[in-house]
UniProtKB/TrEMBL annotation, chains A, B:
In the presence of manganese, represses expression of mntH and mntS. Up-regulates expression of mntP. Pfam families: Fe_dep_repr_C (PF02742), Fe_dep_repress (PF01325), FeoA (PF04023). SMART domains: FeoA, HTH_DTXR. It comes from Pedobacter changchengzhani. The lineage of its organism: Bacteria, Pseudomonadati, Bacteroidota, Sphingobacteriia, Sphingobacteriales. One of its GO terms (cellular component) is cytoplasm. Its main location: cytoplasm. This is Transcriptional regulator MntR. The keyword Transcription regulation applies. Homodimer. Keywords: Activator, Cytoplasm, DNA-binding, Iron, Manganese, Repressor, Transcription, Transcription regulation.
Length: 219, 219
DNA sequence: ATTAATTTTTAGATTTGTCTAAATTAAAAG
DNA sequence: CTTTTAATTTAGACAAATCTAAAAATTAAT
C-alpha cells in the first residue's frame, strides 16, 4: 500500500512517461512542486519498493507494478471528476483540485461501485480516457489543434491542460468537448488560428491551441 | 486549515465530550490508537492553535473554534455515509472505514453540493444526526435498550457502535433502524433481554443492548 | 498524612518527506 | 579534448507525528 505522497510521484512519472521513455529528476520536481533533492530521495525509495526502475543520473521509469499503481490512481481521479460533473453539477474547470484529493481514497469496493453508479464512463470531463477495472483503456490518437492546417476540420475530444483559468477561457470562447470545428485561417503575424464552429468565428492563440486535442475528420 | 491528524483529534475529543466536560489524555489515546505521550504533544499544539482549552494534568475541552471544526468533520463523515448507502448500495456495516477517509476531503463546495444531491438528509445510516451547513442539529434524546424494563416498547432509532461485526449481528437478528420493538422479558441468569418485533422473538445480550438506541413510545 | 497506584508529562529518539548548500556527474560549448 | 554549464546527487538539518523509558503530578488506599 502506497502513501499519499508516493501515489503522487507515481502518477506524475506515469504522465511524464507519455512523452519520453525515461523521466528526469527536474521534470518530476517541477510537476510535483518540490525540489530536485527531494525527488532523488523519493526515487530511491520507490526503486527499493520495486515501483520504479532508477539509475543514478539516468532518470526513472515505472515498473509494471508501478504502472499498475499509477493507473489505479488515474482511474480514481477521472471517475471522481465524472461524479463531480455528472452528479454534483460542478463545471469542468472546478473538479481537478478536489479530484486530486479524492484520488487517494483507499477502497477497492468504492471505486467499483462508483464506476457502476456512473454507468461505466469511458472518458472524463476533459476527454481523458478512464482505465477500466483491469487498467485497460484505448488511448485515442489525438491531433493537437495547433498542428492543423487551414481547411482541416474535426471534433474537440480533449484538453491537455486542466487549470481553471484555461478551461474557463475555452468555455467563454465556446470551444468545449464535442464541438465540430474548422480552421479557416492562420494569422501570419502571431500564428494564432482562426476557427469556425457552428456559425461563430473565434481567434485562438498558439498557447491556447497547443492544449486542445482534435479528432480529425476526413473528406 | 487543520491537518488530517489534527482533525481526527478534534473529532475524538468532540465525541468524548458528550459524556464528560473535560476529556482525559488516556481516553483520547485509546480512541485514536496512539500512546498518551503523543496525545500530550498534540494537545499542546491544538491549544496553541486555539482549538482546545488544555491545562496540564487536567484534561482538555474544545473551544468554540475547535467545536466548529469538529462538527464540520462529523457532518462530512455522516453525509458520505449516506452517499455510500443510498447511492452506492453499501450496507450500513461497510461504510464507516471509508467515511473515515472521506471526512478529510477539503472542499466547502463539495460538502454543500453533496448535501443537496442527497436531499439534505437529517440522519445517517446509523441514526446519527447530520449537522446542517451552520453546524446545527437536534440531538435527539435516546434511551439505551439496556435501560428499558419489561413491557417497555419503542422504535430503534440509532446505534452507538459502528463496527462491522456488531452491525452485521444486528442485521442478522433483524434489529435494524426503524423497527418497532418491545421488551417481553429480562433473563434472570445473564441479564439478556427477550425482544419481540413483528412476530419474531430474539434474545439480546446486555453487551449488544448497550449500543442500541430507542425512542420510547408511550401508551 | 503517608504510601501506593494511576495518570500524565518530559526527554530523547525515530520515521517520512522536505529543504539548503555543497559536491558530483553528465552534457554542451569552445 | 578541455572548459563551462546544467542536471543530479549527497550531506546535514528540519517539521510533523509518533514512540519508549523515565520523571512528575494526581488520585486512591491504607
Ligand atoms: Mn484532473
Ligand atoms: Mn480530467
Ligand atoms: Mn461512522
Ligand atoms: Mn454513522
Amino acid at each position: 500500500m502506497q502513501s499519499f505522497t508516493e501515489e503522487n510521484y507515481l502518477k506524475i512519472i506515469y504522465h511524464l512517461s507519455d512523452k519520453t521513455a525515461t523521466v528526469q529528476t527536474n521534470a518530476i520536481a517541477e510537476q510535483i512542486q518540490t525540489k530536485p533533492a527531494s525527488v532523488t530521495d523519493m526515487l530511491k525509495k520507490l526503486s527499493e519498493k520495486g515501483l520504479v526502475d532508477y539509475v543514478k543520473y539516468q532518470g526513472a521509469s515505472l515498473t509494471a507494478k508501478g504502472r499498475d499503481a499509477a493507473i489505479k490512481v488515474v482511474r480514481k481521479h477521472r471517475l471522481w471528476e465524472v461524479f463531480l460533473v455528472d452528479k454534483l453539477n460542478f463545471k469542468w474547470d472546478e473538479v481537478h483540485e478536489v479530484a486530486e484529493q479524492l484520488e487517494h481514497i483507499k477502497s477497492a469496493a468504492l471505486v467499483e461501485r462508483l464506476d457502476s453508479f456512473l454507468g461505466f464512463p469511458k472518458i472524463d470531463p476533459h476527454g481523458d480516457p478512464i482505465p477500466d477495472k483491469n487498467g485497460k483503456f484505448e488511448d485515442a490518437t489525438f491531433t493537437k489543434l495547433i498542428e492543423l492546417s487551414v481547411n482541416d476540420f474535426g471534433t474537440i475530444t480533449g484538453v491537455s491542460e486542466h487549470s481553471s483559468p484555461y478551461l474557463k477561457h475555452l468555455e467563454k470562447i465556446g470551444l468545449t468537448l464535442g464541438k465540430q470545428i474548422k480552421v479557416v485561417a492562420i494569422t501570419e503575424f502571431d500564428g494564432s488560428l482562426e476557427i469556425i464552429y457552428n456559425d461563430t468565428t473565434v481567434n485562438v492563440s498558439r498557447e491556447v491551441a497547443k492544449h486542445i486535442l482534435i479528432t480529425k475528420l476526413h473528406e
